[in-house]
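Follow-up to my earlier ticket, as requested here are the two runs.
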Amino acid sequence: MNAKEKMNRVLRVVGDMFPDAHCELHHSNPFELTIAVLLSAQCTDETVNKVTATLFQKYRTPEDYLSVPLEELEGDIRRIGLFRNKAANIQKLSRLLLEDYGGEIPREHEELTKLPGVGRKTANVVVSNAFGVPAIAVDTHVERVSKRLGIAKADDSVLEVEKKLMKLVPRELWTETHHRLIFFGRYHCKAQNPACPVCPLLEVCKEGKQRMKNAATGKPDSKKKKLTSKG
């Protein structure tokens, strides 16, 4: 089975498993989505949603985020990891939006990455979910699944993983594939204790087969520490 055939197999399986996979960050507009994704770095979507439930009631516009002292905004997102740095970036982002973009989130990927705290992954999430532009954002789940299934190499960078997925997946399927791979990694192929015994992709997963072999022989999983990732 070549790389393209394997990818097609993966797409069919994750499509059947998670046909309704979607962005789980709660938001009602591109600005809220950008803030939510910024907050989600090294933090679970569940925690972000708990924080934004009240945050998005208090702050609705870039002006709102600039109307309070930085310390107050820090307090509002204190439950989020790296909250001080993220609070500072939110205010810098809000200021730049007002100065250069009329207070609106830009639609172009290149412009999005100019915003403080917005990297390639965040920009991919925003353009695909807010503006309908096909994109594959490689978060910790997508990276882990891609490497476990052999779609990417273990030492590939996040950008290399993204490029390989973009090459193997039809462009019109990029966004839904991104969501389905996240759901597969979050709810099935977890960082710790992946569901290898009941995995429908075990046949194409060299690592999963080795895990099962190790489990059957009582051999310790030598890759366990290496393959465990946060998120």
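Run two:
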Amino acid sequence: MMDQDFIRDKVPMTKMEVRAVTLAYLQLEAGHTFLDIGAGTGSITVEAARNNRQLKVFAIEKNPLALELIDLNLRKYGLKEVALISGVAPLDIGQVPPCDRVFIGGTGGHMKEIIDWLTKEILTDEAVLVMNVITIENLNEGMKALYDYGFVEVEGSSLSSARLSLLGDLHYFRPENPCYILKGVWRKKCQNSLE
């Protein structure tokens, strides 16, 4: 999907180039249960649900404006089956079913608590966790958390993209914000061997 396909406001949105790589890392398939934490405008949630109608999709967001935008974007594409959860993960969140695919787009400063919650209550065996970060500090915290909690097959990408834009009568490539994408696989059998 193109960025202009989404209803937007002053809420962060995962841009098209980053969204494409993020969704590739998630490897979503029919029958998966997918959780989007810090969903923003819902661009990952909407594209995932729209491209995989057999997914069970849950999206968590704390910002009231963002929740309205997610709802508008879901309605725009007739995605009634997505469960939208208002709150801060994991502090305000009630029951979320076990998930085999999780995306962290925003942590609100609670990355360790979120990953602890995911590994103890949410992730199924062989679950894939993908997170996007833009700061070096969050990149370091994310990498450390993946290894500290015993994720395997850890990999990632550093993306810097630029879009063709007008500069007066001329064209140039206007840079987008760089983004780091991290992925890890949660294997309970590996966890059991570590304990």
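The only thing I checked on run two: Residues 3-194 form a domain with the Rossmann fold fold (CATH 3.40.50.150). Let me know what else you need.
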